[in-house]
Amino acid sequence: MKLALVFLASAALANAHFTMQYIWVNGADQGQNNFIRVPPNNNPVTDVTSTDLTCNVGGTSGSSVSTVSIPAGTNITFEWHQHAQRTGEDAISGGHKGAVQVYVAKAPSTAASFNGQGAVWTKIYSSGLLNPSTSEWATDVVNTNNGKHSVVIPASLPAGEYLLRAEILALHVASSYPGAQFYIGCAQAKITGGGSASPPKISLPGAYKPTDPGITVNIYNNLQSYTAPGGAVWSG
Ligand SMILES: *[C@@H]1O[C@H](CO)[C@@H](O)[C@H](O)[C@H]1NC(C)=O
Ligand SMILES: [Cu+2]
Fold this sequence. Notes:
Layout: H1 2-16, E1 19-25, E2 28-29, H2 52-55, E3 68-71, E4 75-81, E5 98-106, E6 119-127, E7 129-131, E8 136-137, H3 138-144, E9 148-152, E10 160-170, E11 181-192, E12 202-203
Parallel strand pairs: 3-11
Antiparallel strand pairs: 1-2, 1-4, 4-9, 5-6, 5-10, 6-12, 7-8, 10-11
The structure holds 2-acetamido-2-deoxy-beta-D-glucopyranose (NAG) and copper (II) ion.
């Protein structure tokens, strides 16, 4: 009896979570876990003050990860799954309701040696509550798209090596803190071409607070609007 309960509990946990496993460059699949700082498991981060918020557990170093070369203006697609399989289950599991955001941070030297600490992150994409009357969230679209969401890297971003940080913020148990679940995937990219923009930057961890209305929120109480943490999107 006890064993069965433990098994059921751990199976439910494993099924509930997911990781970023693929990036696509202008529609071309780059292969499983390539150019990605892979976390040890599919658990979410819940402590917004932890360095795990930067690039997931173990993600402050990318010394064993390759860096993909992309021109500024490239359309990058991030693809998430619960397990190491693309079919046979919901990509990120329908119970995860919440926001999808993408940030970029320019490394002082190489992306592989960049820890992503300090005020270095620029938000380039954010999608949250899409339809209050049907409770449709950005996460629902990710499931519909088999785990994928896309963003165009702004053409005005200066050339250099970057971390690309995708975040899925699941809010199904977020009415008290800690509760909100941060799923984070970081890829390493060398951006070529580009421009001379000087975008606004925030720290991760740093900018997110437990009391942010986008982090501690009851999404099951007729929520009419939602403001994701981390400020406005910079559109280039
Ligand atoms: C980016 O690429 C994806 C996948 O090919 C596509 O669905 C999406 O429409 C593209 N986005 C833009 C803005 O071009
Ligand atoms: Cu989960």
